[in-house]
Amino acid sequence: RIKLLEALPGWFWNARDKWLENYQAASLFAAKHQHLRVPRGKINTWIKAQRKQRDQLSQRQQDLLNKLSGWSWDPFADAWAEGIKELKVFHREYGHLLVPQRFVSNEGFKLGIWVNGTRSQHKNQKLAIERVTELESMESWVWEPLTYRWDEIYNRVMSIKHTDIDYKNSEIMP
């Protein structure tokens, strides 16, 4: 009977052995991909469970997880911090925060998608107030870039004196 049980795929007598098997699978993924953004499945589920039950893990287990390439106890906070860092780099380089949606940083961070997603979260009132405050404290941050652009162009047009326009030729006179 023992041999029959041990022959079953995934059978372990000791839960610690099962933890090590999952750790090894996560470790192999991390070594191959240099991150732990694992697609849905067994390893992904296991990683999420480790984060949730951190307080129940032994110090050795926590140390092993911390050694994995790309391991994070809070990947959402890390992604936020990376987005803010890349947004500041963008501002230094371009002088504004109107990030094109398809913009990817030199580090490979999809900043345009991150900014768009952040604006959507704000619009749907799903963005934490601390994050709203952090963005609003940045010079030239706008929540509605299309409205901002429209207002900017409209104000430029309105600043032109009507006498400077040759209506007959529809051109702005020098």
The count of strands amounts to 2
* Share of residues in strands: under 5%
Order of helices and strands: HHHHHHHHEE
The profile of the biggest β sheet is: 2 strands, antiparallel
* Poorly predicted parts: none
Mean pLDDT: 88
Widest sheet: strand order?
1-2
- Based on CA atoms alone, the radius of gyration comes out at 26 Å
Q: Determine the fraction of residues in helical runs and give it as a percent range.
A: 55-70%
**Shape, per Cα inertia axes:** elongated
How many DSSP H or I helices?
Answer: 8
Q: What would you say this structure looks like, in words?
A:
The chain has 174 residues and is mainly α. The protein contains eight helices and two strands, in the order ααααααααββ. A two-stranded antiparallel ribbon has the order 1-2.
What can be said about this structure in brief?
This protein has 174 residues and is mainly α. The chain is 58% helix and 2% strand. The longest helix has 20 residues, at 75-94.
Notable features of this structure?
174 residues; mainly alpha; two-stranded antiparallel sheet; 58% helix; 2% strand; elongated
